[in-house]
Amino acid sequence: MRDLPNTYTILALETSCDETAAAVVRGGREVIANIVASQMDMHSRYGGIVPEVASRQHILSLTPVVEAALAALPGGWSAVDAVAATHGPGLSGALLTGLNAAKALAWQRGLPFIGVNHLEAHIYASWLDPRSAPPTFPVIALVVSGGHTLLALLRDHGDYTILGQTRDDAVGEAFDKVARILGLGYPGGPAIQHAAEKAQAGGMVLPRAWLRESFDFSFSGLKTAVLHKVQEHQEREARLPAKPAGKHKGRTVPPATPPEPPKVAPAPLDPRWVAQVAYAFQESVVDVLSTKAVEAARQHGASAIILAGGVAANTRLRSELSRRAEVPIFVPPIALCTDNAAMVAAAAFYRFAAGMQSGWELDVTPNLRLGM
């Protein structure tokens, strides 16, 4: 690692999914500006991200967010030393907009360009606080988001070993799907957390997929268990006795011909029952994630655990992991858990310090893995 000055300033772009973001970070730790244009309202009507819509919106939003980020930097472009952008993993069309814009800006200004792994960027969100000491290696990183769930051992900057990852749904994806099953809307993470807060503990227990002798995860079975609970509940409600038939002059009037069995729509879910399911689902997820992260830290002698990714904003996961862990827990502020460009700039700073610089030929890698 070469020593870069604390004044070394990077402008970074992030467009891996549905947030168009630009940030300016000094010294890899001090956030000068972190501008995010969210498309959440636009995609919520569809219950998920529409890739083509996301790509078009990135094109419209990139110039305003870059201008806003540079406006917060004294000296503007004259104070920028390098440009960075996410090149994977993510949606290919969305990634292309930010990557090509960043390369064009760097080339036009004659600045170094650094391509950044989105998963690595989430981890480096824990370095974005110059007022406190950063994590010291080795550390365990638990990355939990809409598209990814993994445990990694970090021995040094850029030195990663994947210990385990999801075998099916990512945890954020499971939150979204279960929220849809329960009629809670999109995005699922905040909706389920809010519903679970209204429940009482101990009302319902859902299964945990432990995958013994492994640090891997699985959430598809849990999602299916919730679906079965909902179906059983609706069938039970539909079997309740119907109201008595109407009466005429004191006696029941039989129908002239036997009626066709009515097509019964699923009974609406009782909000109190939904809260119990949301609570049980969240407890199952938090139990598995916390247990495996703490055990990984113990087995590998880690000095800390980093919680990263959009699901790191879940307050129940934060509190339970902190309660169980025997080492310090690093969790970014909620604004830095979801996709943003400040974390991209932080990761780029340490990649550049390690002598890594990207060429103009760098392309997007939608399925990029951590450590590449």
UniProtKB/TrEMBL annotation:
Keyword Cytoplasm part of the UniProt annotation: yes
Location within or outside the cell: Cytoplasm
One GO location term (cellular component): cytoplasm
EC assignment: 2.3.1.234
Disordered: region residues: 236-262
Transmembrane segments: none
GO terms, molecular function: iron ion binding; peptidase activity; tRNA N(6)-L-threonylcarbamoyladenine synthase activity
Cofactor binding summary note: Binds 1 Fe(2+) ion per subunit.
Domain called Gcp-like: residue spans: 30-345
Keywords carried by this UniProt record: Acyltransferase, Cytoplasm, Iron, Metal-binding, Transferase, tRNA processing
Function (record text): Required for the formation of a threonylcarbamoyl group on adenosine at position 37 (t(6)A37) in tRNAs that read codons beginning with adenine. Is involved in the transfer of the threonylcarbamoyl moiety of threonylcarbamoyl-AMP (TC-AMP) to the N6 group of A37, together with TsaE and TsaB. TsaD likely plays a direct catalytic role in this reaction.
Family per record: Belongs to the KAE1 / TsaD family.
Name of this chain's protein: tRNA N6-adenosine threonylcarbamoyltransferase
